[in-house]
Amino acid sequence: MLRYLPFLLVLALWIYAFIDCINTPESQVRGLPKVVWVLIILLFGEVLIGPIAWLVAGKQRQPAAGGAGGAPAAWRRNHGAKWVAPDDNPEFLRSLREENQKDEALLKDWEADLRRREEDLRRKETGSADGGTGTGDGTSGSAGASGKDGGTGKDSKDGKTGKSGKDPEDTPPAAS
Questions:
Q1: How far is residue 20 CA from its own chain's centroid?
Q2: What is the rounded distance in angstroms from the CA atom of residue 176 to the CA atom of residue 174?
Q3: Contact 53/40 with Cβ under 8 angstroms?
Q4: 70 near 63, Cβ under 8 Å?
Q5: Of 13, 45, 158, 161, which residue has the fewest beta carbons closer than 10 angstroms?
Q6: Looking at the predicted structure, is the pLDDT value of residue 137 above 60?
Q7: Residue 69 region, left (φ>0) first, then alpha (ψ -120 to 50), else beta?
Q8: pLDDT of residue 75
Q9: Which uninterrupted H or E stretch holds 74?
Q10: CA distances from 175 to 45, 67, 162, 164 (A)
């Protein structure tokens, strides 16, 4: 098993260099055209010359941001941008306030629309109860009382909506 390890390491480096070369923009390739670098990596990959040449000389490498290399630490302290935590960053806090105001305005619009729709529904229900038009199943508009004559909710005895002229004890309890 251990005898395959060098072969696997060479293969891994070969594949890494090939994919890195293909994904690198043409503007960051140094020395030779990108196609030539791909051919060098593929042709000389078994002996590690191609992949190592690509990693050393083929691509422009950027120094790690804020890490070692690049400008001295004293210059970075004086000229670099200082990182600020989100809860101390005034721009972030301002964006949160603006987003909160937008959300509150949207919520108020939704609530107003809901109130308007509920009011329209109440008007329709009271209009149907006053007009005497039932639902056809013996219930009347918003009153919800069952009538005897099938849909108007009116009884011939007293002419009032939803009343049958009987005492509440005479009517059987409603099934739920």
A1: 32
A2: 6
A3: yes
A4: yes
A5: 158
A6: no
A7: left
A8: 56
A9: helix 73-79
A10: 84, 77, 17, 18
